[in-house]
Amino acid sequence: MRRRASTPAALLAAALMMALAGCSPPGNDATADGDLRKGDIAFESCSLSAVGARAVEAQCAGFTVPEDHQAPDGRQIELAIALLPAKSPAEPDPVVMIAGGPGQSALESYPTVAAAFADVNRARDVLLVDARGTGGSHPLHCKDEDGDNAFGAEDMTPGAMRAFTGRCRDALAAGSDLRRYGTMDHVRDLELVRQAIDAPRLNLVGISYGTRVAQQYAKAFPQSTRSVVLDGVVPNSMVLGQEHARNLEQALDAQFARCREEPACVGNLGDPALQLPAVRAALEAGDLATVSYRDPVSGEWLEETPTFGHLAILLRMFSYQPAAAATLPLLLHDAANGRYAPLLAQSRMLMASLGDQMAHGMQLSVICTEDVSEMAALPGDDGSVLGNEMVALFQAQCDAWPTAPRADGFRDPLAGDLPVLAISGEFDPVTPPHYGDEVVAHLARGRHLVASGQGHNVIGTGCMPKLFAQFVERADAQDIDATCLDRLAPAPPFAGYYGWEP
Description:
Residues 1-21 form the signal peptide. The protein is α/β, with parallel strands linked by helices.
């Protein structure tokens, strides 16, 4: 049996958070073996895979760029890119999916959202580029001597994580200038890829942190941008990590209110808003016995002492998806009655998947350069689920991480008449809908759609894939009939192990 304790802040630091047609469309020059060339880039057949998703057949290539765009003759790094050719003769402007994190690989995460791109992929190629520092693009992973990432560290206090970060910095610095792995570096890489494949313009689809990249690209290269979709909107004004505690409290309040409104939920399980403080107090007291439970993935029997960290990661990540958040009243009810095995199992499943999905070094290169200087502990966040621990943790790690000056005008909003479609989930705990409102307020041709009852990242929800495809086809957000979204509804809260009431 294995035993491991956790604290909430580091578990949450990477918040956030996975068949080609037989014909060759115009502009895609097929080789004799079925591979493909776009402009200057020769692709080879490959398969993209992610845990829990069906593999996707694609065309892959490497593309070399300067590590420092201001020193083009200096060290070069290779980017991993993939192309999903259109199913019919392709329009000249591809769709580019930009992954979230920061630290997530586009190639590794695409299979989890591939269904959402099926309609748009009929007439346009879908292009994926792993951001430098992630996936197959010179990745910046931080590991300890046992091969564990930051999520697996036994000591997650700020001091310990500062030391962990310093060791990672020293290990990576021999082959990487860690100051050159931020948002604007990725933006310049995307522009070089666009030029290399001879695409006149790009249709950008940013997901979560990827919405920051999309907005910054559209600001820097407006002539290269045809349209922008922002899913889980991060305004340029937002300091990553600063408002997570406040947003999570609001999302939990909304979720718990749904249980109180459902007689079977509150009658069978009690009010989760009242149980949460009691469960938290018991976990923080630190005198609980170890609990045996089965790893939900491997089936291995484990033994751990329940801590508040287990609860915090569960609350933080479950609230991304309302279908999963529907189980929170049941998990809190069990924990309030001394049954911690379900909480530990679900927490472990989330923790295991998080750490390996995010390139921690790339995440630090982004946040330490672009955000940490504006982070501050907020008295109003004391006593919340996250409190100010995430801020303290990032500040400690960034003390040990190299940074570059942030680009001038970085916080300025994207403005003008570019067609932009912003989409949000009503119960999103990290990028709530008012963020989307803030962004489209500066855009004459912007529109914001909110998916009722949904959480973080909604591009694949309900009829949203068709609306997304219509927008890209027309480059006009105002002309879309979005009434089909009215049929969306949240999953009812559980009333017991049988699920919800019929």
